[in-house]
């Protein structure tokens, strides 16, 4: 049976508040605040444990090796690692922060994934995102590609494409702008790709759009998705201007359900109508309008960055950030959703506050990978989140992670060594092999 597995990004030891997210209000508001990587990683593990305890297939993707000293060398800093880090701190702290970013934790941006039921060769297809719109994120692609190959290693079941060429016209932010809909667990699904800008009518707003139509089309072509089951839709420009930097900040889909804000799409009726037509059945929609939850409340609470999951008993649950509880209008909308006759049967709250302060909610933290039984069996076994792995990772985090980190700490050479030792150990725990550049040159 084809079931959706969630692979969450494990928060890295260098989690900090760099103010680096373009069009991402939370990231900008929290710039230079002292972070707590230990708490961030534990919050992430609790979410994974919570979803696994619901009987869902939960996996884990590793963080990246940071600070990326090679990147700092490529932008002109020279000398020993210690010297490079110190110079970057004094001359270009923004670049040091980019080199130290733990942003790979938001695994929804790791790649676009297509189910084997949707692809020409019946394999699961992966295209890592090039993330070219932001320096700190563009650094992720090579290690992400290596991590995905190590997690989904079998050529027979998994096809790994290279990322799209790294240029603005092909800016790609992965699954945060892609949703697969399907009526049941067997048939070919429908793919919705949402883009922020189309080169034929470029978006010119307060914030640059991060995903281009050209990139979405290229990924769909690369995965050879059926054109009669693929829809490309423009994001509403006002939403981008209000701080909706990815579609998953304003809409979430699962199976035949779409939860969305009325300002999510430029052509709302067209999107809902086309998806229903492609599916052959009306989509079950939950539409939230401005008077229920305005764009600003949607963005601060991350209501639409919830996960919708089907439990083994067939009921559907909404997985939300704790911040939703604190927003009366948002909580009222959730309560109404659960109490009505609609598709959502229950809600579960997780505290992912450290991630939220950088604009990453529950759905940002996970990459969805639809897998059938054989494909699940072909996944690297140590990447599945079990109670034992939870225990091991919790002890590993508690032993190695700091409980406070400021940007200046990224220049501490002891920190660089600390991270390398920590991640070296992690690759053993997760059985991933040498995925990090520092392991290959050592
Ligand atoms: O790309 N934040 C990320 C958040 C990504 C959320 N992902 C999804 N919506 N799928 C971003 O803006 C902030 C890092 C900093 O400021 O230190 C950051 O990169």
Question: What key phrases describe this protein's structure?
Answer:
442 residues; L-arginine/glycine Amidinotransferase, Chain A; 17% strand; globular
Q: What does the overall shape look like? A: globular
CATH class: Alpha Beta
Which cofactor or ligand species appear? N~2~-(3-carboxypropanoyl)-L-arginine
Radius of gyration: 20 Å
Widest beta sheet: strand line-up: 2-1-15
Distance between the termini: 43 Å
Determine the strand fraction and express it as a percent band: 15-25%
Q: Output the number of helix runs.
A: 17
DSSP strand count: 15
- Give the low-pLDDT segments: none
What does this structure look like?
This protein has 442 residues and is α/β, with parallel strands linked by helices. It has one domain (3-66, 101-441): Succinylarginine dihydrolase (L-arginine/glycine Amidinotransferase, Chain A, 5-stranded Propeller), CATH 3.75.10. The protein contains 17 helices and 15 strands. The strands form 5 sheets. Strands 2-1-15 form a 3-stranded mixed sheet, sandwiched between helices. The protein has a 3-stranded mixed sheet with strand order 3-4-5. Strands 6-7-8 form a 3-stranded mixed sheet, with helices on both faces. Strand 7, helix 8 and strand 8 form a beta-alpha-beta unit. The longest helix is centred in the first third of the chain and has 17 residues, at 37-53. The protein is globular, with a radius of gyration of 20 Å. Bound molecules: N~2~-(3-carboxypropanoyl)-L-arginine. N~2~-(3-carboxypropanoyl)-L-arginine binds at residues 17-21, 24, 27, 101, 103, 106, 108-109, 137, 176, 245-246, 248-249, 358-360, 364.
